[in-house]
Protein: Glucose-6-phosphate 1-dehydrogenase
Organism: Ceriporiopsis subvermispora
Amino acid sequence: METSHEELKDNTIIIVLGASGDLAKKKTYPALFNLYREDFLPKGVRIVGYARTKMDNTEYHKRITSYIKGTDNPDVANKLEEFKSLTTYISGGYEDSPSFQNLNKYLEELESGYQGQERNRVFYLALPPSVFIPVAQHLKEECYYKGGKNRIIVEKPFGKDLESSRHLLGALKQHWSEDETFRIDHYLGKEMVKNLLVLRFANVALSAGWDKNSISNVQITFKEPFGTEGRGGYFDEFGIIRDILQNHLLQVLSILTMERPVSFSAEDIRDEKVKVLRAIPPVERNDTLLGQYVSANGKPGYLDDDTVPHGSVCPTYAATTLWIHNPRWEGVPFILKAGKALNEAKVEIRIQYKDVTQGIFKDISRNELVIRIQPSEAVYLKLNTKLPGLDMRAIPTEMDLTYKRRFADAKIHEAYESLILDALKGDHSNFVRDDELDVAWKIFTPILHWIEGRNGPSPKPVPYPYGSRGPKELEPFISKYGFRRTETGYEWPVTNLAAL
Ligand SMILES: NC(=O)C1=CN([C@@H]2O[C@H](COP(=O)(O)OP(=O)(O)OC[C@H]3O[C@@H](n4cnc5c(N)ncnc54)[C@H](OP(=O)(O)O)[C@@H]3O)[C@@H](O)[C@H]2O)C=CC1
Ligand SMILES: O=C1O[C@H](COP(=O)(O)O)[C@@H](O)[C@H](O)[C@H]1O
């Protein structure tokens, strides 16, 4: 596979802005530590945390290591001590020049220990969107090092709709070029999402039936078994569509449905993603099911959270069907569904094939190709097999590629590890390009405005119990688009023939 990127090798400082926050603690620092442990970070790297909170290095180290796993292993513990020695903290504001001048002075002090002329700075914004613009501007004005490479990594949310996204992107672009900007959608760093390119384009057997002639419907599902506990106030401003569908699931959809890119280069891949997204019209109201969880099994409902506005109609569950108007996919429903407080943790793609032509077979199960993104990565194809024995009867079984079994000793890196490494390498393939965002917002903005009551009363989400599969309306919703459940009698992993 082609790689011709500008990798940051030596003399690099990674500056984590928002270092006192949740994302930094839970994702950024554990990812940086794991990369450090495996020797993937540039030689002599320094990591600088920056935030408003005043704390000393001891307190900072305590915070950033609280989510690091495996520290009872002496090797890990030793590496962690090394890691701490190269990460330091400095506090400052997000909206004033002197704070950033101070940060720059501190970076220069650290850099004075580097050999040679080159200095590279990677700014990771683990910050709320309200300060993206001033921070990006101050970083450019006060902390940009002209004698080296500068990169800025930004996290979603990239706006709240088409207009605000354009405003945000436009403001960031005034200071940072597209080449210097890395917009994270961490789903693009997940192993099974990256695997889609290989599964699709390196297997003639699969690509032959990858279209409307063979496929009846596709579901891309995100399920989380916990609610918005503690984040209700934040979540209420965004809702499940902005949180999951407009970004993570749409990214998965675009890779699943795009045409084959000319090469593995970032621009070739993203050109194809944009092309397929442009063939999707805005989501229709009657192709959408909205839900909100209510208390059940001793768990609180969404509205029981004190940080959620009284009577909020913010959806915590959404299923919505997208249509792709191109020759490959015309007429195939793509159902994106995501919800909080459901019965399990699961993210999967389920491609359901059409019925076999009737005649010699009646009422047999459809083939399904399931790509399980998490937990426990797997690809399995549900297919009919002759019941072993003298009877001529078809039963549903599966061809199963479970990663834990097939790749027993493989280490699957966390999405954030893989993406930070890509940013250091200068590889944009798994980051979101500006025009991708634009077209993604075009698809979802009308429905979001409807939900927010911009053009009339807001729709009321249907209730579903905490810990359930979602609203009871889900089954009829999915059936409407042709999904058929595998006939009962399907058993995994072993079929008990005596019971058939
Ligand atoms: N490699 C592996 O690990 C493999 C595992 N298996 C396992 O075999 C089992 C069956 O496989 P599979 O058919 O793919 O998965 P499921 O039976 O879990 O789901 C099949 C579909 O039916 C829906 N569904 C699940 N339960 C209900 C219900 N009670 N009422 C209505 N709809 C429901 C699911 O939707 P929704 O997700 O929205 O609830 C999903 O779309 C699963 O436990 C699977 O994990 C099978 C093959 C390989
Ligand atoms: O972006 C987000 O993703 C997480 C789920 O990420 P995962 O890697 O654990 O699948 C979700 O919990 C959060 O609400 C959302 O903002």
